[in-house]
Amino acid sequence: MAQADRLGERPHPPPYPPAHTGEGREEDPAFGVYVHWPFCRSKCPYCDFNSHVRHDLIDQPRFVRAFTAEIAATAARTPGRTVSTIFLGGGTPSLMEPATVAAILDAVANSWHVANDIEVTLEANPTSVEAERFAGYRAAGVNRVSLGVQALDDAALAALGRTHTAHEALGAVAIARRVFQRYSFDLIYARPGQTAAEWRTELMSAVSHAAEHLSLYQLTIEAGTPFAALHAAGRLTIPDADHARNLYDITQEVCADAGLPAYEVSNHARPGAECRHNLVYWRGHEYAGLGPGAHGRLDIDGVRRATATERSPEAWIGLVESQGHGLVTDEPLSRAEAADEYLLMGLRLAEGIDLNRFEMLAGHPLSAEQIAYLAQHGFVETPGAGRLRVTAAGFPVLNAVVANLAA
Ligand SMILES: C[S@@+](CC[C@H](N)C(=O)[O-])C[C@H]1O[C@@H](n2cnc3c(N)ncnc32)[C@H](O)[C@@H]1O
Ligand code: SF4
Fold first, then answer.
1. Measuring from atom 4 of ligand 1, which residue has the nearest CA?
2. Which listed residue, of 64, 85, 328, 393, carries a Cα 20 to 30 Å from 310's Cα?
3. What's the rounded Cα separation, in Å, for the pair 255 and 81?
4. Mode of pairing for the β-strands spanning 353-354 and 262-264
5. Ligand 2 centroid from CA 53, angstroms
6. Sequence-ordered alpha helix ranges (H) in 78-165
7. Nearest residue CA, atom 14 of ligand 1?
8. Residue 395 gets which letter from DSSP?
9. For ligand 1, is residue 125 a contact (CB within 6 Å)?
């Protein structure tokens, strides 16, 4: 996630080409549904996701009723869509009872058409208790899990405030492999004190347990978290830019060698095994955001709208019970905003963006001079068919590349 944000001297291009996305094409129709489960057993000190710890039992049937109402209200605004992907994210969705997941998936199927080959992902924490529910999730209709393994080193896991060991996490990965056709797991790297040799060894072990997909995030210090306070007090040191770049290069090299090239800045997959739900975001397709603190992008009457729901679980459920949905933001995007968003999201992908689509959204083409300037420096390329993509040399300075093009 953390990216260098300056266009400095041209870095040496790594000796591996950027990947192409094997999963479908940008022009294929896609409609995603994101469902946010906002509860966690404990709060990890680096995390600023909308996640809450509650010591009282969560009334899951009440949440099911609220999700069902919000799904119906959203479907009424988006008739005729066929849902191609559902993502149950969090927080910790693996704290949901399988019956809760089944009821939410039924509500989606009762409100929209669903594609025959729908991808249904559930984000899970890799504890043994949660892995026991995997078969129940599969019976409910989940066909892919994404596990938050974070590290394969017990000291690092403890420093990240995780409640599982590496052994327990790999046990959950093994159960996921038996129960689901598709699974992925997340690791966080560029952790305090992590050496290049340690990361290479850990990542090589991780790829040996990964079937088709891995998400590899550089530790980001998020404002307002305990890690941010420790960092500000000088009690937590993260790798400097050069060391982080070295760890990033190791990540690309080890994954490419293992047949898991990057198809997005932090996501690696065998070609064809990309997360279709996340491609919905990066390819600028439509998606509904349901549950506390969820974001959506809906195309209504030819205008792209940005939606967001109330973040507090209790306030969200109160809103849904009183007005049928928990929306607190529902705004049209201007042409410039929609085009910038497409640029920002699409250039994260190795496949890049469609220049004609950008022009249609923005009402003007991207600057040919800027493209030529960035191409001369080796940061972008135009591989034909009207596409623009970032090169292996451009990805480490992606923010600066996007800023140059958007300017
Ligand atoms: C919303 S979390 C949900 C996953 C699940 N609750 C868990 O922790 O296992 C999604 C992923 O974001 C990543 N993540 C969260 N905060 C991060 C941070 N500050 N820096 C880097 N990665 C982060 C973690 O890898 C995590 O698995
Ligand atoms: S990383 Fe996962 S388990 Fe930890 S607080 Fe964030 S959402 Fe919850």
1. 148
2. 85
3. 36
4. unpaired
5. 10
6. 98-111, 128-131, 134-140, 154-159
7. 47
8. G
9. yes
Tell me the backbone φ, ψ of residue 114, rounded to 5 degrees. Answer: -120, 145
Distance 334 CA to ligand 1 centre (A): 31
Is the distance from the beta carbon of residue 274 to the nearest atom of ligand 1 less than 6 Å? Answer: no
SS3 (DSSP) at 26:
coil
- Taking CA atoms, 356 is separated from 134, 157, 401, in Å, by 43, 46, 19
pLDDT, residue 271, reads 95
**Which residue pairs from 331-338 have beta carbons closer than 8 angstroms and sit at least 24 positions apart in sequence?**
331/305, 331/306, 332/303, 332/304, 332/305, 333/303, 333/304, 333/305, 333/306, 335/361, 335/362, 335/363, 336/362, 338/304, 338/362
Q: How far is the CA of 354 from the centre of ligand 1 (A)?
A: 30
Q: Which atom of ligand 2 is nearest to the CA of 162?
A: 4
Surface-to-core class of residue 342, CB atoms within 10 Å of its CB (0-12 exposed, 13-18 middle, 19+ buried): buried
* This prediction's pTM: 0.94
pLDDT digits (tens, 9 = 90+) for 147-179: 999 999 999 999 999 999 999 999 999 999 999
Which tokens in the block code for residue 366?
A: 């991207």
**Which atom of ligand 1 approaches the CA of 92 most closely?**
6
Choice from 92, 145, 149, 227 to test ligand 2 binding pocket (greatest atom count within 8 A of CB): 92
Distance CA 78, CA 291 (A): 17
Q: Are 388 and 353 in contact (CB under 8 A)?
A: yes
Q: What is the pLDDT of residues 283-301, one digit of tens each?
A: 999 999 999 999 999 999 9
Bond into 363 cis (ω within 30): no
Distance (Å) from CA 245 to ligand 1 centroid: 20
With beta carbons less than 8 A apart as the criterion, state whether 255 and 212 touch: no
Nearest to 294 by CA among 37, 16, 6, 30: 37
The angle, 0 to 180 degrees and rounded to 10, between the axes of the packed helices 335-346 and 398-406 is 150
Name the residue at shortest CA distance from atom 7 of ligand 1. Answer: 148
Alpha-carbon distance of 149 to 166, in angstroms, equals: 8
Tokens of 257: 């060698």
pLDDT score recorded for residue 21: 61
